[in-house]
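I would like you to sit down with the pair of lines that follows and say whether tokens and residues agree.
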Amino acid sequence: MQTHEVFNQANPLEGHNVADDQTLMDGLVREGAEWSVGEVSALGELAGTAEVQDWGRLANENPPILRPYDRFGHRIDDIEFHPAWHNLLSTAVANGLHGAPWSDDRAGSHVARAAKFYVWSNVEAGHTCPISATYAAIPALRDNPELAATYEPLLSNGFYESGLKAPLGKAGLLATMSMTEKQGGSDIRANTTRAIAQPDGSYRIIGHKWFTSATMADLYLALAQTDAGVTCFLVPRVLPDGTLNDVRLMRLKDKLGNRSNPSGEIEYQNAVGWRIGEEGRGVPTIIKMVNMTRLDCLIGAASGMRRGVTQAAHHATYRKAFGAYLIDQPLMRNVLSDLTVESEAASLLMMRLAGAHDRSTRGDEAESRFLRLALAIGKYWVCKRWPAHAAESLECFGGNGFIEESQMPRLFRESPLNGIWEGSGNVAALDVLRAMAKSPQSVEAFFAEVALAGPEPSIQRAVAEIQAQLTDLAGAEVLARRVIERMALVLQASLLVRFGDPAVSDAFIATRLDGDRGSVYGTLPGGVDFAAILGRITPKVG
């Protein structure tokens, strides 16, 4: 006689197309990348396979190992990875998630890349850090045309090659940024790392960096002080002649999440570097990189929300309790619908910002002005919303969601990261205030975008309240988070009115703008069209 049989359990969510996402696909067409629909769908199909989903598990269960010395005692500063990490990276590079759009003249190339980044992040988030940094490095690198001409082709082609090797001898390169020091954190003007000019035009860089992500990258964009102030430098891990540069990997960080990604402490011990941009203008140079990675933080958070609620909806479709499937029970339908509304608002904003970014790279000044403010607002808000969203998605599984094998704990541990990366909440909020003070045109562009929703009463009331609060920018810092939250909500509401599903739009406005909800997910009012909302999130398997 058997002790038990397994029943009333959902199968793993495998064999579905991750890109089966109407908000994503509509956004591709609307934002000028209709030509990429097939490519995004193909990547989504691959991302949903059991094999690829397992790559994400293996990369996190077998985190990177630092190998500072070989067995004879020679310094090698190498990192050992599970093969799954290389599978993830090589697929991302082959699909152009790194620097490829910068060499692609087609309109919408950055939109297509954003959609692919969204889809592929569903599999595993850690490896997307070097992918994002490589993408973001190119605008900063172009401040030195000679360096850009040498390295940009290797940062944007479709080849991935692991291991330490002279950069010009590798098929393709990855980049990262190296800014943060223990005494300064986000205050990078407090950095103490020094750079000393050499007769040959290079610099010798000396100092310690407290947090450098993707330390396995081939190229570091590092900040160091010269007599003129903070300056940006390109520092290769291996010099052009094939010798190791004097970059020491001291230790890898033991992080809450993002465990597959080798973030670490490094020391520059007379490392060789080449200046990017003017001396003393390192902050504006590196900000070009930071802004790109901020967009990816938002995309990754939107992707994480989509993964969480999709997993929860799949579980609820096959799990019964108290005589009925969970997804048919009114309270669970409310929770899942509320999570869906949040997810769709985030995805819609992500696609709109990707479109603005694409057009701004092609000289559209109006889109540049809109992006300057909207990106800072969107990064702050969407990344802030993800942790609570991930927790609620996990709770839909009950105790099963607390077990590592469900993969929901990995998603939950990942969720706080994007709010910290590239400027935590307060840094992002202060950046919004700076943008409004320095560029009043960006404020005008923001409200012009919101106004495209037409005479929607709730949006109009919220806009009037915001504009009243913005009359005193000098005294706005203490209220910055309140104002930015409201600005994010009116922008999302406007986009939903224009482009979203009516059921999602109505629920969002009623609860996020008009306040007809509680303080947690699952408190939508009774008149919401739950069936229409859930139909947009429940995955199709097989």
User: Anything to note?
Assistant: The longest strand covers residues 264-276. The chain has two domains: 62-94+125-280, 284-534. The mean pLDDT is 95. The chain is about 50% helix and 15% strand.
